[in-house]
Amino acid sequence: MKIGIIGAGNIGGNLTRRLTALGHEVAVANSRGPHTLTALAEETGAKPVTASDAAKGAQVVVVTVPLKAVPDLPVGFLDGVAEGAAVIDTGNYYPQQRDGRIAAIEDGLPESRWTEQQIGHPVIKAFNGTYAQDILDRGHPQGTRGRQALPVAGDDPRAKQVVRDLIDELGFDTVDSGGLDDSWRQQPGTPVYGSRGDVDDIAKALAEASPERTAEWRA
Ligand SMILES: NC(=O)c1ccc[n+]([C@@H]2O[C@H](COP(=O)([O-])OP(=O)(O)OC[C@H]3O[C@@H](n4cnc5c(N)ncnc54)[C@H](OP(=O)(O)O)[C@@H]3O)[C@@H](O)[C@H]2O)c1
């Protein structure tokens, strides 16, 4: 598939590594420009591009920048995506350490709903509770006992299936965690966040989540 990755840090870099290794055609962008991505491009074969160009023609786009940077993404950066493209949001709200106060999220809007509003395109929430290094180290073939599972939330069933199939290719099971209105179940501070459990563990952790945002995760 043609995949655009916006953000080349911990998560974006490792997704670039694994997705190119699987044979996907990856374009990758950061904030400083393609000339700063030559090492990653040489290592992986991904094409370094500007954030405005990363999503052009892509069937899957991964938005993996700090939450506070989402409003800075170029206007219309998703205009040229392929018909029916799936846009993955890996983001988390870290008000105290990184992002500052975002009033709508403090007031209860699920984090990915906020991101969706900022970028003007529906998103599928995935990878947000997965350690970046695990993307490289912990993938296993389908059917492996105890295979690590990732929760995936989103409103568009077709886009969600595309993302779940891609995660399977990367070596992980998935659990459908519902629509974006339910995606608070996988936000920071919930039982599933950072879990390395299998499908049963993840389903149980999602069911045990509370919608209340604890003090640690408030501005
Ligand atoms: N680290 C993890 O293990 C982990 C796990 C799950 C989810 N997450 C979440 O995923 C998101 C990304 O995390 P990360 O750890 O990968 O971040 P990171 O290592 O800090 O990397 C962020 C990337 O975003 C790029 N960026 C920032 N502003 C941009 C803009 N306006 N346009 C284009 N690119 C921009 C940065 O480019 P420059 O370097 O050029 O500024 C950098 O490549 C966060 O919301 C995080 O909470 C992280």
From TrEMBL:
Q: Which residues form the Pyrroline-5-carboxylate reductase catalytic N-terminal domain?
A: 2-93
**Organism expressing this protein natively:** Streptomyces durocortorensis
- Answer whether the UniProt record assigns the keyword Oxidoreductase to this protein: yes
Per its record, how is this protein called by name? NAD(P)-binding domain-containing protein
Q: Which domain of life is it from?
A: Bacteria
Question: Entry's InterPro entries?
Answer: NAD(P)-bd_dom_sf, P5C_Rdtase_cat_N, STEAP_metalloreductase
Q: Where is this region: Disordered?
A: 178-198
Keyword check for Chaperone, yes or no. no
Q: Which Pfam families match?
A: F420_oxidored
Write out the entry's keywords from A to Z. Oxidoreductase
